[in-house]
Amino acid sequence: MKIKKGDTILVIAGRDRGKTGKVTSVNPTQQTVKVSGINISKKHLRPKRGAAGGGITEVAVPLSISKVMFMCSHCNKPVRLGSKTTTAGNKERICRVCKSTV
């Protein structure tokens, strides 16, 4: 999975198409990401005895990884990510358009 927590992404499919946001969590086994302010759903909560009363809260629901693209900070475009190994043996993510390291 090439998208990580803290990356800026663009949604390319679904009802939030065209919106950008930061990734708050990643689930590699299910191939999903949670993005702040995107794919918000309403959850109905029952009143609990110890906590505050119930009500309707908004919760971020995970998006499929296939519905998002990485936004490159150098060229400001949605891009695919590649990888290359440095001379020290470290693996770096690179932008496929402008060839800069991410």
From TrEMBL:
GO CC field: ribonucleoprotein complex; ribosome
GO MF term list: rRNA binding; structural constituent of ribosome
Keywords: Ribonucleoprotein, Ribosomal protein, RNA-binding, rRNA-binding
Keyword Membrane part of the UniProt annotation: no
Record-annotated KOW domain positions: 2-29
InterPro entries: KOW, Rib_uL2_dom2, Ribosomal_uL24, Ribosomal_uL24_C, Ribosomal_uL24_CS, Ribosomal_uL24_KOW, Translation_prot_SH3-like_sf
GO biological process: translation
A Pfam family of this chain: ribosomal_L24
UniProt xrefs under SMART domains: KOW
Similarity comment text for this entry: Belongs to the universal ribosomal protein uL24 family.
Assembly: Part of the 50S ribosomal subunit.
Role this protein plays: One of two assembly initiator proteins, it binds directly to the 5'-end of the 23S rRNA, where it nucleates assembly of the 50S subunit.
UniProt protein name: Large ribosomal subunit protein uL24
Organism (species): candidate division Kazan bacterium GW2011_GWA1_44_22
Gene for this chain: rplX
